[in-house]
Amino acid sequence: MKKTIIFSAILAISGLLIALGPQYLFQGCAAGCCSAYPDCFWMTKFMLAMGLIIAALGIFCIIYVDPKIQMGMIIGIFLTGIITLLSVHVIIGGCDIPSMECNLVTIPVLTGLGILIIVISIVRFLSLRKS
User: How far apart are CA 44 and CA 30, in angstroms?
Assistant: First the structure.
């Protein structure tokens, strides 16, 4: 039970960082900086949705203690983590100018958080599978 709370809390906090970080902590470019709405603006909006999904699933993992239900939610978190990485690097990305804030701060932090979520979800899935 203690392991469940620790893993789920880390996932929920990471999800909140993905959701709210680009908005407030490690902001990318603002609307109107490069063009009307640069790519990093839309990436930030998409990260809000992805982060909230990860945070909600992390909280649900604390509430629902059945290992089969948790396994399903961990799979959802894993897939959302992959979509997060893909949207940061392939689907949406940042500005075309390498020296912009989104390329220097926002994208590296989101990449690190996405990798953290993927690794933690794999570890949690394997520990659930064992038990």
Answer: 10
DSSP state of 90: I
The angle formed by the CA atoms of residues 49, 80 and 72, to the nearest 5 degrees, is: 120
Average pLDDT per 10 consecutive residues for the chain, totaling 131 residues: 84 91 74 64 86 93 89 94 90 73 80 93 91 76
Whether the CB-CB separation of 84 and 22 falls below 8 Å is answered with no
Determine the residue type at 88: V
User: What is the pTM (predicted TM-score) of this model?
Assistant: 0.84
**Number of domain units in the chain:** 1
The residue segments making up the domain with residue 47 are: 2-23+31-130
